[in-house]
Design brief:
There is one protein chain. This protein has 582 residues and is mainly β. It is 7% helix and 34% strand. Strand 2 and strand 3 form a beta hairpin. The longest helix is centred in the first third of the chain and has 10 residues. The relative contact order is 0.15.
Length: 582
């Protein structure tokens, strides 16, 4: 394969007719369960020419890849239609988007960081150099006054989470908000990819609690692709490959995303694909293309569907579907999603889908869309709200490419099914976790210690973003509370966790280091699958949604976290630490 180098809203979520993050946050609380670029213009220009940019590609050599990431503000020009009052127009093409002057935090002065191509057994060496100015001191919460401190997470990788030796860090993200990589400092990461690591799409982004949302929202992210040389699935066809980051910016009138609070009062933009609104992608009739679609947004889900085409989805979060394709097209979207198939091909924040498809033999214009799926501004039921996120042109001389055979996909022993027998042999430990946006005084909350603050209280944010577990007998609390314990897990243990969601938003649960083997949704058995980022089904009939999965805590000890990957939720407290103890 060749990697290419080049009444639609809830009234509760509106402010003067415009959907804002502040409104969405409050709406989420209201429906909780009760007592129980690059400098590119829009994609419409140069009608039949490719306008989808691809970031720089860096490949390992001799088993090593080295990279300096300079965290800095950059002046960018990007065409961003961000007027949510005109959302209805986003379902059409083209949508007018005038270039705007933006000043955003970046890696190396670019929207989107380089794509890293690695092989199992490689070593990735990264120096993160923080060149940002001192953090603004504008928040009533001290934990949010470190917006220009940072760190780095390698999302989805099964790698060491510790400070491996003095000054040498793995996937280390358990800094306190007051620590991390402060302006003027440098941190060195050394990431050893295990020899049996799965092939697939992963990504990297900042993860300092309290500053994650503002930094990732600015475009501080990049892709990681892992595969062995000459893998049969990839060797079978010389198919072109593209990484598509589907992202939404939340900008002030000055074109900035400086603080968490600023993002609450502003509407999110339409989806940008690799920094371009509605880019054009050009294919020849019969050409096969391979897409890895990543959702780095802070809140909004994506449901990709391409008019007139069958998308053959084969992996979620880098984990293949037992060497099978799952069909995704207009008909499957129209048929709806049964809960036994949750989350289907929805991509909630942090998630990734990998797919191949063959361009139509009929030349013409087709549209890649984000179809309706459960979220505040993606209502289900009779609404058909969607966005056109890219334009696909099929033109030129026809070819007859073959779609690769999914049975050729590589599997590893680490991702074999976790059976009842294996779980029992390892002690059969079961844990229950909870996620909820709650009103202060909700009976599900623990009594707040007098020296703590759980509600931001500015910009209309009056909710508690809480987690809970079996160990929290007094009730739920946010991550920064002394009442929120660390989950202690034995090294090489195998456990079963159930995560409960007490809101109508499908909070995307993400756990670092170890993937999840999903066995049940809402208590009902499903066709099992592996993932690292899982939207937990929303409340239904006043009952919380749930997802049950098993995990092997193999290879690495140390501390890391699980959290909601709606990153403003995480920054406000929807996170808990995990420690694997030898």
């Amino acid at each position: 394969m060749n990697l290419i180098d080049c009444k639609k809203f809830s009234d509760h979520a509106k402010t003067d007719g415009v959907v804002t993050r502040r409104g969405l946050l409050q709406w989420g609380m209201a429906v909780s369960v009760g007592a129980l670029l690059p400098a590119c213009g829009g994609g419409a220009g140069n009608a039949d020419q490719e306008s989808l940019p691809q970031p720089q590609i860096l490949r390992s050599s001799g088993g090593v890849l080295e990279l300096h990431l300079n965290v800095q503000y950059a002046d960018l020009s990007m065409a961003v239609p961000d007027d949510a009052a005109l959302m209805d127009q986003w379902a059409s093409y083209p949508v007018s988007a005038k270039p705007r002057a933006l000043a955003l935090r970046t890696f190396n002065g670019q929207y989107m960081a380089p794509t890293l191509m690695l092989k199992p057994g490689d070593t990735l060496r990264v120096w993160v150099n923080n060149r940002l100015p001192a953090s603004p001191q504008s928040s009533s919460w001290q934990g949010l006054n470190h917006q220009n401190s940072t760190n780095l997470h390698f999302h989805g990788l099964h790698v060491d989470p510790k400070e491996i030796r003095p000054g040498v860090f793995g996937d280390y993200v358990v800094d306190k908000a007051t620590a991390g990589i402060k302006p003027g400092d440098t941190r060195y990461h050394e990431i050893k990819i295990p020899l049996d690591h799965s092939s697939g799409i992963y990504w990297y982004h900042p993860h300092l609690h309290g500053s994650t949302n503002a930094q990732v929202s600015s475009g501080m992210f990049g892709a990681i692709l892992i595969r062995k040389e000459n893998e049969a699935f990839w060797k079978a066809s010389a198919v072109d490959e593209q990484v598509l980051f589907a992202h939404k910016l939340t900008l002030t009138e000055q074109g900035r995303t400086d603080t968490l609070e600023e993002s609450f009062a502003r509407p999110a933009s339409a989806f940008l694909i690799n920094g371009v609104h509605q880019p054009t992608i050009v294919l020849r009739p019969g050409e096969v293309r391979h897409w890895h679609i990543v959702n780095p947004t802070s809140f909004y889900p994506l449901y990709p569907v391409l008019d007139g085409h069958d998308l053959h989805v084969y992996a979620r979060d880098g984990n293949n579907f037992n060497k099978r394709f799952r069909l995704l097209n207009r008909e499957t979207v129209k048929a709806g999603l049964a809960m036994k198939d949750w989350p289907g091909s929805y991509i909630y924040p942090g998630g990734r889908l990998s797919m191949v498809f063959k361009a139509s033999l009929v030349p013409g214009e087709y549209f890649l869309r984000s179809a309706a799926c459960p979220s505040w501004h993606r209502p289900t039921g009779s609404s058909n709200y969607e966005e056109v996120i890219a334009r696909v042109i099929v033109q030129g001389e026809a070819v007859n490419d073959d779609i690769p055979d999914p049975t050729l996909l590589r599997s590893t022993d680490e991702y074999l099914p976790i059976t009842d027998e294996e779980l029992a042999a390892k002690g059969g430990m079961q844990r229950s976790m909870r996620l909820a946006i709650l009103s202060p005084g909700d009976l599900k909350l623990a009594p707040m210690p007098s020296d703590e603050s759980w509600v931001l209280g500015t910009d209309g944010v009056t909710s508690v973003f809480a987690v809970g577990s079996d160990a929290m007998q007094s009730g739920m609390a946010p991550y920064h509370s002394a009442l929120t314990p660390t989950q202690l897990v034995p090294f090489n243990g195998v456990e079963e966790w159930t995560v409960w969601n007490f809101n109508a938003y499908p909070h995307p649960f993400h756990i670092h280091v170890n993937d999840c083997y999903v066995t049940k949704v809402n208590g009902e058995s499903v066709d099992p699958f592996w993932a690292d980022t899982l939207p937990v089904p929303p409340v239904s009939d006043s009952k919380p949604g749930s997802i049950t999965f098993r995990m092997r805590f193999l290879d690495f000890d140390g501390s890391f976290v699980w959290h909601c990957h709606a990153l403003d939720h995480e920054d406000l407290g929807m996170m808990q630490a995990v420690e694997i103890k030898v």
